[in-house]
Amino acid sequence: MSASLLRRGLELLEPPGRAKVPPGLQRGRAGPRAAGAARRRKRAPEPGRSKATVKGRVVKSAIEEYHKKKPVNHLRENLQYMLKGRLVADKAVTEQVLAQNRGRKSKDQPPEKTEKKKPEGTVFTEEDFRKFEREYFGVP
């Protein structure tokens, strides 16, 4: 599932009074060339010292570097976020989300449900049949 479909589905599930995106999660740049300008600024060489020398260089601990780059497990925060809003979407919204994810090919369409016919049982018991037999055929 692409990020845009996921975003669209989450927008459908949001309560109507809430803002589109929380201010902490907004992404954006100052302009179209902001990333390029930042890259150029980074690339500018420092006139002070040569990086080829070892003098004044701090030795980095391999263990500290490993702990910095170790992946963080966000399961607990994600579960709290998901369980926080116990908003159950109505059936029309869920059908709309499912329809957006479904393809147009026949293999992507859900199979049509057919109602199973219940076997028709008799309303008469054996006792009723015996009584009928006695009345009409005279069998004792």
From TrEMBL:
InterPro entries: AROS. Residues 12-37 have a biased composition (Low complexity). It is found in: Nucleus, Nucleolus. GO terms for molecular function: enzyme binding. GO terms for cellular component: nucleolus. Residues 1-56, 98-125 are annotated as: Disordered. This is Active regulator of SIRT1. It comes from Bombycilla garrulus.
